[in-house]
Amino acid sequence: MIPAELREDRGEIDAARRGKLPKLVRLEDLRGDLHCHSRATDGRDTIEAMAKAAAARGYEYVSINDHSRHVTVAHGLDRKRLLAQVRAIDRLNARLDGITVLKSVEVDILEDGRLDLPDGVLKELDFTVCAIHYGFGYSRARQTARILRAMDNPYFSILAHPTGRLINAREAYDIDLERVLEAARERGQVLELNAQPDRLDLDDRGCRLAKEWASRSRSRPTRTERLTSISCASASTRHGAAGSNRATS
Ligand SMILES: [Zn+2]
Q1: Residue 119's Cα: distance from chain center in Å?
Q2: What pLDDT was estimated at residue 236?
Q3: What is the pLDDT of residues 154-164, one digit of tens each?
Q4: What is the domain count for the chain?
Q5: Which among 27, 102, 164, 176 counts the fewest CB atoms within 10 Å?
Q6: 14 CA distance to ligand 1 centroid (A)?
Q7: Strand partners, 67
Q8: Does residue 23 lie within any of the structural domains?
Q9: Ligand 1 midpoint to CA 88 (Å)
Q10: 72 in a domain, yes or no?
């Protein structure tokens, strides 16, 4: 039986005959969420409420990734506010039982590829989620170079919503996804599959490409392997045939 998401004439019949169909990610495989916003920027709830909601879902961890200062429409965090949030999360973790709140940020990738907050602040975090929110119209070469430069930052961990598409609202920006995936593999970095229904970005083809690149690095444990089975509550992963050991939020 070939799961519906795999019926795309991309070799699935052959794979089924050989007993090589991938094991698809399931909701119960999810152990946490790595991209959440609190009401400090454009989320609606406090960090404590988010942590309790995540615990109620059976998650082991949840991370707080509020926007950085460049995203002024969301009242993005500057150095001082982010450091205050980091200390508040430390105090909260000391009180909470059964769930860990991870300290993070959704740091803006600026037009020239620098990150929007200094390394001295980023190093205080458990990891970073890095994203483009301005300058979508650049050429493929310029956009790719911008992202690759950001990935050279030693504190870059995850590229959020990697092509920027908003379904029925905005086309993906033009990047050389294979080069970005290659760079991520070399550096032990991760591309997000954003589970928001209007994003689902990477899409199914991107997920499949990412899986192919990840499988080429099997001999070297990377953060992709470490972040196993994390929130990827999206059909795109199943559609892209990424197995449950390859998914991240
Ligand atoms: Zn974003």
Answers
A1: 20
A2: 52
A3: 999 999 999 88
A4: 1
A5: 27
A6: 38
A7: 106
A8: no
A9: 23
A10: yes
Asked whether the beta carbons of 101 and 92 are under 8 A apart, the reply is yes
Distance from Cα 214 to the centre of ligand 1, integer Å? 24
d(C-alpha 249, C-alpha 247), whole Å: 7
CATH number of 170's domain: 3.20.20.140
What integer pLDDT is reported at residue 79 of this predicted model?
Answer: 97
Asked if residues 145 and 168 have their Cβ atoms less than 8 Å apart, the reply is no
Backbone dihedral angles phi then psi of residue 73, each to the nearest 5 degrees: -60, -25
217 pLDDT above the threshold of 80: no
Cα(4) to centroid of ligand 1, in Å? 30
Instruction: Quote the ligand 1 centre to 131 CA distance (angstroms).
Output: 6
Q: How far is ligand 1, taken at its centre, from the CA of residue 160, in Å?
A: 7
Rounded to the nearest angstrom, the distance between the alpha carbon of 106 and the centre of ligand 1 is: 7
Statement: residue 225 has pLDDT above 60: no
If you measure from the C-alpha of residue 175 to the centroid of ligand 1, how many angstroms do you get, rounded to a whole number?
Answer: 17
State the distance from the centre of ligand 1 to the C-alpha of 133, rounded, in angstroms. Answer: 6
Closest CA to 101 of 67, 40, 36, 51: 51
User: Could you tell me the distance, in angstroms and rounded to a whole number, from the CA of residue 234 to the centre of ligand 1?
Assistant: 17
* Domain-located, residue 160: yes
What's the pLDDT tens digit per position in 96-142? 999 999 999 999 999 999 999 999 999 999 999 999 999 999 999 99
Residue 135 falls inside a structural domain: yes
Q: What is the DSSP letter of 98?
A: S
Dist. CA 108 → ligand 1 center (Å): 8
